[in-house]
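Quick question: who can interpret this fold?

. . .
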Amino acid sequence: MWTRFMDMHSGGGQKEEWPFIIIEAPEDEARVIFYNRFGHNPERVTCTCCGEDYSISEEDSLEQATAYDRNCEHAYFRPDGTECQRDEAWKIGSGCAEGYSSGYVERQNQSKMRIRLDCNTTDDEPWGLYMTLDEYLASGEVLVIRADEIKDEERKGDVPVEGYVWQGD
């Protein structure tokens, strides 16, 4: 499992050198590793109007964990694994129909391409263009922490509550 931490720039700034940090560990363990590496709770609330410092999500692969940021297309799949249209796979109010699935595929996200064209973006401005995993990893926008780079002691401990905390009555 891979856990993606996206800096929400809460409080007006980025918390670490990278806007995206991806750790090869399940979400609960990755939160501990994150705290032990960076010294702050990724769920800290720096600013009450902005919410938690990081958006956190878990994916099965590094490719899927980075796909949105690499401008990959999101697709739907039949139970036999062949790609299909959203209308066939998606049931409003309940998600994917039984046996169907969805995920990212390695091709240009056409919605982002339409936005790019509408905004008259030039070829010198890479916003919205598909990137391979290797291109993305070399971009400097992401820190990837692989399982073999994690020390045993970084996997242990508790993550303290930090920042603004809402108290009930």
